[in-house]
Design goal:
Elements lengths: L1 H30 L24 H9 L3 H10 L2 H18 L5 H71 L6 H25 L5 E2 L23 H7 L12 H11 L9 H10 L8 E2 L1 H33 L2
Helix pairs in contact: 2-4, 3-10, 4-5, 5-6, 5-10, 8-10
Length: about 325
């Protein structure tokens, strides 16, 4: 009986204690805010990324999976800071809100996209200028080739009618023994005409010359010659050409590599020599008071411009790789 009474007393005390403490617990929970998960503010705070002491470029390469080419072009555009911030925001959005993308994240993506597209348009602008010059050179070359073909045609007719007729007449005159001297004279004259027309034909193979306006072309800045505003490369394109390609394994910049290839393949003479300097002045249309072009010179200009066009076009490929890397975040 005493044990039963004691048990009832204990139960009553527990209920009394709970009745006193429960309102206090409810009041405390209403006053204290709920603990929220703090979003990361940099790469070092993201789980499994890196310690704060590691370098930013290593973090970016590991997190965003940028290839050396994409990383190289990102540095050139100066958007590595934007990419870092985008990585942090993307990780926070997925960790805290699932797949919902924040307004700041969308704004960063738009800013990166605009930077890439603007650079792509600059690349296309340079390519358009190079194509315009090549098209102009094709027109002048066609004009010179037409003049050359007409001159060769006139030469052939003169050879057939003039020299051919004299040789034939001289040979026919020798058939009469009493008239051999006039025939031999006619053959000598015909042979001389053949020789003159042959030398003239060799000269006509070059196609003659044509006077041009003499404005510097898109090769001028490549060789360090004076330029005009219409033939200057945009700063980003020029930095790209003067940058060592990522993972190339060679110490030369893109511009120096192309020039070395031209020298090695005998497309141009060594620019350090006096002959090479004169040739570069002719190729870049910067030779003072001599704005004359030939078919061979136009062919050389077009070949060199095509090589520069290929180098500039490669920037489009690098920009596309960077764009795909950003989309994959």
């Amino acid at each position: 009986m005493n044990r039963y009474i004691w048990t009832q007393v204990q139960a009553t005390l527990c209920m009394l204690i709970f009745a006193i403490t429960y309102p206090a617990m409810v009041a405390a929970s209403a006053i204290l805010p709920e603990r929220e998960e703090k979003p990361a503010t940099n790469l070092a705070e993201l789980p499994g990324i890196s310690d704060a002491g590691q370098k930013l470029d290593a973090d970016l390469k590991k997190v965003s999976f940028l290839s050396p080419r994409a990383w190289d072009i990102a540095e050139l555009l100066g958007v590595t800071g934007l990419i870092e911030r985008l990585i942090v925001l993307q990780a926070n959005d997925r960790r805290l809100h699932g797949k919902v993308m924040s307004v700041e994240c969308l704004s960063l993506r738009q800013e990166l996209t605009e930077a890439i597209l603007t650079t792509m348009l600059q690349v296309h602008d340079v390519i358009a200028k190079i194509d315009t010059e090549i098209s102009t050179y094709n027109q002048v070359q066609n004009l010179l080739e037409d003049k050359r073909d007409r001159a060769i045609s006139y030469n052939a007719w003169a050879n057939v009618i003039g020299a051919g007729a004299l040789n034939t007449g001289g040979a026919a005159g020798e058939l009469v023994q009493s008239n051999e001297v006039p025939g031999e004279i006619a053959q000598v004259v015909g042979g001389g005409i053949n020789m003159i027309l042959g030398a003239l034909a060799l000269r006509q193979q070059n196609g003659g010359r044509h006077m041009t306006s003499g404005h510097p072309n898109m090769l001028a800045q490549i060789f360090g010659r004076p330029t005009e505003s219409q033939t200057e490369y945009p700063p980003l394109i020029w930095q790209y050409l003067n940058k060592i390609p990522a993972g190339s394994g060679v110490p030369d910049t893109r511009r120096q590599y192309v020039i070395n290839q031209w020298v090695n393949l005998h497309a141009i003479d060594n620019p350090a020599t006096s002959r090479g300097k004169i040739q570069i002045e002719r190729l870049t249309s910067t030779m003072p008071k001599q704005n004359v072009v030939t078919i061979d010179l136009l062919e050389d200009r077009k070949d060199l411009l095509a090589d520069i066009r290929a180098q500039v076009s490669q920037m489009d490929s690098d920009l596309l790789e960077l764009m795909n890397a950003i989309r994959s975040l």
